[in-house]
Structures are given as C-alpha cells and as structure tokens.
Design a protein that fits this description.
single chain
Length: 48
C-alpha cells in the first residue's frame, strides 16, 4: 500500500465517522501524528 492509498483510506474513514466528520479515538492527535510520521519514514525507506 502506498502512502497515497493509505491517506485516501484514512480520509474516507474520517469523513464516514460521526456526523460532521468527527470521530472518537483511543489515540490522541499527537499519537496519530507520530504514527503517520513513522509510516511516512518507513515508506520512504522502502522506496529507496
């Protein structure tokens, strides 16, 4: 799965969450950001 495909799936999941695009998560925004940074780094390393 490419980063673009992941981002598209994430965007769809977020918009289909609660009405208005909101959703609840067991992860904080900071944890999600850190995970996305990790995924991007792994994707970049795999592409090298």
């Amino acid at each position: 799965m490419t980063q673009e495909e992941f981002n598209q799936m994430l965007q769809i999941a977020l918009t289909q969450g609660l009405p208005g695009g909101y959703y609840t998560s067991k992860y904080s925004g900071e944890e999600i950001d850190a995970l996305l940074d990790q995924v991007a780094a792994l994707s970049a390393a795999a592409s090298s």
